[in-house]
Specification:
Layout: H1 2-11, E1 15-19, E2 25-28, E3 33-37, H2 43-59, H3 64-69, H4 71-97, H5 105-111, H6 119-134
Helix pairs in contact: 1-2, 2-4, 4-6
């Protein structure tokens, strides 16, 4: 899954830059770079941050003004990036472990640092994967 994300980042000419930044990660459309803090040591955490920021690069490239316009728009764009991250994490989970067993989405959410308020997004992502397998 991350191979596909990295391939798309190359396709869109998005670079990943590591350094001592004030946030764990952020995407800047002006430079078309994803910036990841060197203070993030966990490989898993870096991948999750890159997934989220890649969503901004793929989905919100020309929407910086919208992002900065007001809190409601910023939250909407952040939610879209989180749904992208969740969809990709669920895809990876299903590819690796399948769905022929009981899946505890709360454990999945906890392990992947997904907020309780996003439970419905996780359920929808798993349902999409079930539907693909059945259809």
């Amino acid at each position: 899954m991350m191979d596909e994300i990295y391939s798309n980042l190359r396709k869109y000419d998005v670079k990943i830059v590591y350094g001592g930044f004030h946030k764990e990660a952020f995407y800047h459309p002006g430079t078309n770079n994803i910036y990841v803090s060197t203070a993030v040591h966990s490989y898993w955490r870096k991948q999750n941050l890159i997934l989220h920021e890649a969503a901004h690069a793929f989905l919100h490239f020309n929407e910086l003004e919208l992002y900065m316009a007001c809190e409601i728009e910023r939250r909407k764009l952040e939610h879209e990036a989180e749904v992208f991250r969740i969809d990709n994490m669920v895809k990876e989970y299903v590819a690796e472990y399948g769905v022929d067993h009981e899946i505890n989405i709360y454990n999945f959410m906890d392990y992947n640092r997904i907020k309780a308020s996003q439970e419905e997004d996780v359920r929808k992502a798993f349902q999409k994967e079930y539907d693909k397998l059945e259809g």
